[in-house]
């Protein structure tokens, strides 16, 4: 059996099975203090509930120590401690298995598709200028699309950007969103025909105050009550259906039709019988009511499997402190860009005014805004302080701090490569020839155990869209990647400030230097992969 890449979930599963109890007894340690003594712990309280007197049978302890498996970390010792049953990992071997030659990417990530998700962002249909609250839901949908694609999920983004508006701020923020789109005339006609057959629909008299383009009115409340639908606003009642409403539905249906399915495409315009798409409406809380109206109307006109799979991912409010007037997304971007420029001039001096820094400042601005919008749980309120320069190059919880540490890694490897070319150091040997027992510094195990080891599972968890427990709202861990990168940057910065990686060019020091470079090369790859889900390119200088 091949060794494979160890994982946290597989190791925890094997540890629980070794104790012969169905309950999840083990936890992974993450704090530096506890990691000096143990890597996994079955807490005393959990053991007391699972075993008489909390005493684990010797044969179970022995089974833990002898665990082996392709995805299980190599274990060194298992012992009873006052805190519970503690396990330590054979660290040199763990370094070797995680930093050595690894198998290729998982099949789902390499090419096989695992379903289709339509991400619908109504904020992009806003008739007025985009506001920061709109930007939050668009950035979240853009990030979620990248996370899902990394897991092999086919993603469709709706609506397509219209050509009648300028979308400069989306381009500046590196938001990849489709534009244009096919004609929807046939699809809208099919929806009108469905309205004509709908018992919930009725003609709407054109009275003063009636919006232009009203096709009919539909009684939503009676349908919700008849179907026993949960989670909808009790104030849903009569919806005036306009041409614009039908255009929105038609575009959603087109996206569903484009999702890859195993069965041949049906002749019907409605893909009810063959599509297995999930539809996620990513909305800010102020748009939620209108989106629920569109949701119910779609269920009425197309009572198929895909419309029943609609989910609502609702973003909390975005509060702007003391605005002199409502601020648009463009103004918000330009303000943050000016603040980032000023902060860079203060930190780096005249260099920050050079033409070569324009791209760097733009990237730092995008990182600052994306982290400001995405590092908070999507359900929670975000407060934007636009008066004070809350975006800086110094804060340890900002996107600029993450990019700064990514650039430090680039500088390290550029310096090493130049030294190799000058004959100061030999080239980095293959990972299979490195001596990982040289990695004894506390920060080295912290980087491997808390970041390199769980990173694939972090991406999987961030991309999960669990079904709603009740109703139509779902919760996703969209803040996970930003928080992961911030914590990684803090621990990497602490290690890098403490350890001199490129030492004196003495042969007896090369083993440790090469092992450290291999570790940091893997850390760099994690930075790059995580930043890619945020459409952020790594910086080579800062």
TrEMBL record:
It comes from the Eukaryota. GO terms for molecular function: arginine-tRNA ligase activity; ATP binding; tRNA binding. InterPro entries: DALR_anticod-bd, DALRD3, tRNAsynth_Ia_anticodon-bd. Residues 402-542 form the DALR anticodon binding domain. SUPFAM superfamilies: Anticodon-binding domain of a subclass of class I aminoacyl-tRNA synthetases. Gene3D superfamilies: Isoleucyl-tRNA Synthetase, Domain 1. Pfam families: DALR_1. SMART domains: DALR_1. GO terms for biological process: arginyl-tRNA aminoacylation; tRNA C3-cytosine methylation. PANTHER family: DALR ANTICODON-BINDING DOMAIN-CONTAINING PROTEIN 3, DALRD3 PROTEIN. This is DALD3 protein.
